[in-house]
Amino acid sequence: MKYYDKLIFELSRPGRSAYSLPEAGEFKPSGSVWRETPLDLPEVSEPDVVRHYTNLSQMNFGVDTGFYPLGSCTMKYNPKINEEVVSLFNGIHPLQPLSSTQGVQAVYDFMDKALAEITGMKHFTFLPCAGAHGELTGLMLIREYHRSRGEEARTKIIVPDSAHGTNPASAAVCGLDVVVVKSRPDGLVDVEDLKPLLGPDIAGIMLTNPNTLGLFERDIKQIASLVHECGGLLYYDGANMNPLLGVVRPGDMGFDVMHLNLHKTFSTPHGGGGPGSGPVGVGERLVPFLDKVHVSGFHGNFGVILRACAYILSLGRENIKLAGRLSTLAANYIKESLKDCYKLPIESVCKHEFVFDGLLEPNGATTLDVAKRLLDYGFHAPTIYFPLLFHQALMIEPTETESLQTLDAFIEVMRTIAREAAEDPEILKGVPHNAPIGRPDETLAARQPVLKYSRQ
Length: 456
Ligand SMILES: *Cc1c(COP(=O)(O)O)cnc(C)c1O
What we know:
By secondary structure, this protein is an alpha/beta fold.
């Protein structure tokens, strides 16, 4: 353990401080504002504080420290110009009078138009603060629409078995019953399985396209007209819109409502439940309901929206199209380069991501072993054991922001790991060797996190 990996309380020495304020003197506040007993804080110097937090920040793997091919999460590099633009808006407050926030209004207005052009929707609300929050908002809009037509009986929503877990969860929170439509062996929605589900109790369908296997739903037009014919609406989960940027638009495919994840497709930083933005776009039919659904106070996460605005403006129309195409190229390049040592369950051109079903010759090594070994070699692991359609899923999404050299280095390491599994699988059992933490109990860590220091 390095000296500064110690907990900051262990560095504490009585009387040491990082900064001293002058005596309060005559300006000493009176009454309950003034603390008589000092807070139980570590007593450390400024260098101790800086080193402690800098070291902490590097115990975690981030996209600024290495390649992060976490499928379904679009961990693309976040250009630093975005941060600079955000710093220009420091100090604004949501309760400021409109006359003093015209620049902010202009950003929302620009983003409404830009996202409408990118997606083919009419208007967006920027209130939702995450993808799942956007889903809930969109489903509430669908419900309002049906209610306004006296169709209260439409209480069921169709969700494919390959959907992101948030889809059925949001539907349940919205009070809708989930009906599952199966995928065919080629990974696409089974239209024959869909047909008998459609009826007067259907509120709509939630689709992710490209779906969680990274495949484009080829029957999307037919699905759209079938659902519309039965009186339902189409929800588009656009969290992973990246590969479609400037290529096709959900609005043109027949979708009525959708969300985008600005904290994926539009480059703004995310992870660990940090701030996000899941703006919801609607087509003609739902525009009148946009003001009727209130899902958060104020105006959503403006900082995230502003970063996305900087990203869109700095790329411009042509380069945004390139981003989508390059993300598709990078994913197919890795897929084709590794399919002789990892099991590719569905042989097809993918979009921005694809799924392997573990090693071709596992020899006892699991997907978890592969993921942990990657950390030893300096790469973040792909998403593992999702989607649930396969037992050893490894979901890889390289994004467009990586060079050919980085992709090649990743491919080489993935091949090395396959070779290790074939020749000496024992190597993989205790990995990672080089990470600060090995194999935590992730369920326990999520359910009962220990977030504060306690003295023994
Ligand atoms: C990430 C993701 C979501 C959820 O987004 P959050 O911001 O994490 O709530 C929903 N659907 C898909 C397909 C996603 O990839």
